[in-house]
Known about the structure:
Elements: E1 6-9, E2 27-30, E3 35-37, E4 42-46, E5 49-52, E6 57-62, H1 65-71, E7 73-75, E8 80-83, E9 91-96, E10 102-104, E11 109-117
Antiparallel strand pairs: 1-5, 2-11, 3-10, 4-9, 6-8, 6-11, 7-9
EC number: 3.6.1.23
Protein name: dUTP diphosphatase
Keywords: Hydrolase, Nucleotide metabolism
Amino acid sequence: MSEEIGIKLLHPLAQVPRRQRPGDAGVDLTLVEPLSLEPGSRGIGSTGLALELGPQTMGLVMPRSGLALHYGVTVLNAPGLIDAGYRGEIKIILVNLGEGRVDFAVGDRVAQLVVASFVEADFVARTQLGATERGTGGFGHTGYR
């Protein structure tokens, strides 16, 4: 199932996001300006794109596994959330957790965007919650490995 997402190119070097393979969940986001990250530093990458997401959809900006594995670069606030009502430029907060400087050029793929549906929930205060087998067990309650 495919849904049309409106996109506005805000920069002459902006690229329409695309999948690398049919059926992939994520589409690549590329840079419109160079970006250099020293070890331990963070920066903001400009995509030159704005989106028109539909009602009850959101965009999730996710890291690229190859950048994380080979360079230690990831999306700092992963996943970055893009609300349906936002019409500004999509920018990506990147962090270099690696040991060397990483230089990105215009057109480099630095993150991926996943569009997902969500439930607009209403939260209701209650004095008791329904019982489950798990109950209040959390943080390793079933073991660590």
